[in-house]
Design goal:
Layout (H helix, E strand, L loop, with lengths): L11 H9 L6 H11 L4 E4 L6 H11 L3 E5 L3 H13 L4 E4 L5 H12 L5 E4 L1 H4 L2 H7 L4 E6 L14 H4 L4 H4 L5 E5 L4 H10 L6 E4 L7 E7 L3 H10 L5 E5 L3 H13 L4 E4 L5 H12 L4 E5 L12 E6 L6 H8 L9 E7 L1 H13 L4 H19 L4 H8 L12 H4 L3 E4 L1 H13 L6 H8 L5 H5 L16 H13 L3 E4 L4 E4 L1 H8 L6 E4 L7 H4 L3
Helix pairs in contact: 2-3, 15-16, 15-22, 19-20, 20-22
Bound molecules: adenosine-5'-diphosphate and zinc ion.
């Protein structure tokens, strides 16, 4: 009897307890395991932290043959393999960063039937040498992890995953299980079609994470808003997401100067720096990781108490996945997203400029618009977010910012007209700050030099605060009446949306932005 088959034929429940030390399956895991045990193809949609791995690891052991797991990231594979080895499972990973002798050892173990579970990257799997070797080994299951990477509609499309469409041809009698945390209908259909599993059992778990308190605020005083959020969880771990590498570095430095244990993390770090950061993150010490989206897949610290976004994610899917890294232990955790009109306009601008094919841009655009709508919604955030994944929450969650502090709206038609006129009169090339300055009757050097203090719109918005006007700009951008152009963010009217407002043919209802609660002790320090 081969070593890899030592669990073959044992009851899954027993192996779960004996090998993994878990008392029982979570609901969907039991169904998924049962399907695969019966040799049926399966698609599992489960949020991050839901426990997807067990769904294929158990059948891999309990069925005869070796389990093959396709995974997109080397770091992710190495983590899984290390974890499994600690449990006494013979797991190995074949990928491009292996030393020659490591690869040779794996090949000999493969041939001798010693490997329980083999993790592999898609490009490695389909290289001819590897494929020839693998088709000769009986497989218990083929798991396609992060299966949404196969879909061009998905937010993390990886062209090399496309090649997996060849799997059924090479391994016709092996059950396939595809797993993902991206749940939308389109992605789901793409996965089923690409892996040619039209009759697959599709198991969808709820994406509701009741322990996450979602809150979304307009940017007012970024650093203070951030620190207020972090302060509630001083002794825990937090993740702060930024849109660029440079920004993570700046923010981490600024937090360290204020006495926070903060580290930057992004794709530009050396492998050694990355490893060191991950080690510290996993050690359990209080830590704030200021990261780009490079910090993500495979992060498994259960007690992350806060996730803060300083820049708006590109889609609800990305947003959900990132905030999902908070509270994996099930305890209450806070998430905060800060957003601004310029950010939205810039995101749209860069998308338009991008060299991606128009079909892809259309998808990305619809996701970006869904994200923008999510930030501006006046209803329950949790509900709006779940709605993006086709899940309807019967009741408002009761603990997001909009549930706790119902949003006031007001008739902002007059304010919108003032602002749009000011943009028009100043020539549609100045940024929000300048236009707001004109409305509020300021006499900055730029305003007087351009003669904008002589315009009829000068000073007509004196009675309102700068923050009020920023809110108006942002919401007019969100609804498409304004856009920005170029890197400097000059505001421009979108005529078809702006004209009816200017002419008084259309009413504009705006949300009254909450007065952002910041920690007053910090204001001295700025
Ligand atoms: P995902 O891949 O869906 O993000 P994982 O497979 O990494 O999730 O599992 C998330 C966490 O849940 C892990 O820490 C894992 O040990 C734990 N877990 C998974 N299944 C069970 C179970 N049946 N009982 C207890 N803990 C579990
Ligand atoms: Zn709510």
């Amino acid at each position: 009897r081969l070593e890899r088959d030592r669990f073959a034929g044992k009851p899954p429940q027993e192996v779960l307890q004996a090998v993994f030390g878990f008392p029982g399956f979570r609901s969907l895991q039991a169904q998924a395991v049962e399907c695969v045990m019966e040799g049926r193809d399966t698609l599992v949609l489960m949020p991050t932290g839901g426990g997807k791995s067990v769904c294929y690891q158990i059948p891999a052991l309990c069925r005869e043959g070796m389990g093959l797991v396709i995974s997109p990231l080397i770091a992710l594979m190495d983590d899984q393999v290390a974890g499994l080895r600690q449990l006494g499972i013979n797991a190995a990973a074949l990928h491009s960063e292996l030393e020659g002798d490591e690869a040779a050892k794996i090949r000999s173990d493969l041939a001798n039937g010693r490997i329980d579970l083999l993790y592999i990257s898609p490009e490695r799997l389909l290289s001819s040498g590897t494929l020839d070797r693998l088709v000769r080994i009986p497989l218990s299951v083929i798991a396609i992890d992060e299966a949404h990477c196969i879909s061009a509609w998905g937010h993390e499309f990886r062209p090399e995953y496309r090649a997996l469409t060849a799997l059924p041809r090479h391994f016709p009698h092996v059950p396939r299980i595809a797993l993902t945390a991206t749940a939308d209908e389109r992605t789901r259909e793409d996965i089923l079609a690409a892996l040619d599993m039209p009759h697959a059992e599709v198991l969808v778990s709820s994406f509701h994470r009741p322990n996450l308190n979602i809150s979304v605020q307009p940017k007012a005083s970024e650093t203070r808003q951030l620190i207020t959020a972090l302060e509630r969880h001083k002794d825990a771990a937090s993740i702060v997401y930024c849109g660029s590498r440079a920004r993570t570095e700046r923010m981490a430095t600024s937090l360290r100067e204020r006495g926070w244990p903060a580290l930057a993390y992004h794709a530009g770090l050396s492998p050694i720096e990355k490893r060191a950061a991950l080690l510290r993150f996993r050690s359990g010490e209080p830590l704030v990781i200021v990261a780009t989206i490079a910090f993500g897949m495979g992060i498994d610290r259960p007690d992350v108490r806060a996730v803060v976004h300083l820049d708006m994610p590109a889609s609800p899917e990305a947003y959900y996945q990132q905030i999902g890294r908070a509270g994996r232990d099930g305890l209450p955790s806070d998430t905060l997203l800060l957003y601004g009109g310029e950010d939205m306009a810039r995101a749209r601008y860069w998308l338009d400029q991008s060299a991606a094919p128009e079909s892809e841009k259309r998808i990305m655009r619809s996701r970006l618009e869904a994200m923008i709508a999510l930030t501006e919604t006046t209803g329950c955030r949790t509900r709006a977010l779940l709605h993006c994944f086709g899940e309807e929450l019967a009741e408002p969650c009761g603990h997001c910012d909009n549930c706790l502090h119902p949003v006031l709206t007001f008739n902002g038609t007059e304010a919108a007209r003032k602002l749009l006129s000011a943009v028009y009169r100043t020539g549609q090339c100045f940024g929000a700050l300048h236009v707001i300055g004109v409305l509020r009757g300021k006499t900055t050097e730029a305003i007087t030099r351009n003669g904008h203090d002589k315009l009829t719109v000068w000073g007509i918005g004196k009675d309102k605060s700068e923050q009020f006007w920023r809110g108006v700009v942002r919401q007019l951008i969100a609804r498409g009446a304004l856009r920005t152009e170029g890197q400097y963010g000059g505001l421009i009217l979108n005529q078809n949306v702006a004209r009816p407002i200017l002419r008084g043919e259309e009413e504009v209802h705006l949300r009254a932005d909450p007065v952002v609660e910041t920690n007053s002790r910090l204001s001295d320090r700025g």
